[in-house]
Amino acid sequence: MTAEELRSIIAAGLACDHLVVEGDGRHWSAVIVSPEFEGRRSIQRHQRVYATLGARMQTDEVHALSMKTFTPAEWAAQHHQS
Fold first, then answer.
1. Domain boundaries, the chain
2. I want to staple 74 with a disulfide (CB 3.0 to 4.6 A). Which of 16, 39, 62, 70 is the partner?
3. DSSP line for 29-48
4. What is the pLDDT of residues 45-64, one digit of tens each?
């Protein structure tokens, strides 16, 4: 699986304002900004992303995924600081 394939899978299942995926084919990191994260705790956000991957997490197609998740407001606040 490529970073672009993984990005497409996540984007197909989750409305994303910003999505960056990097990795080596098994170990991935992602920065995900989604309005669907509003009012959700970190673990709930991660569960929501894992739901987009479904069985790929169990079949080892995606061995590990570390995430930084933000709401649009959190993302905007973080990028307006100098």
1. 3-79
2. 70
3. EEEEE-GGGTT--HHHHHHH
4. 999 999 999 888 778 778 88
What pLDDT, in 10s, does the model give residues 12-50? 999 999 999 999 888 899 999 999 999 999 999 999 999
In whole angstroms, what is the distance from residue 13 CA to residue 77 CA?
25
What's 20's DSSP letter?
E
Q: What is the pLDDT of residue 7?
A: 96
Which class for 67: exposed (0-12), middle (13-18), buried (19 or more C-beta within 10 A)? Answer: middle
3-79 CATH, one of 2.60.40.1080, 3.40.50.11540, 3.30.300.90, 3.40.470.10: 3.30.300.90
Q: Which residue has the tokens 């899978």?
A: 9
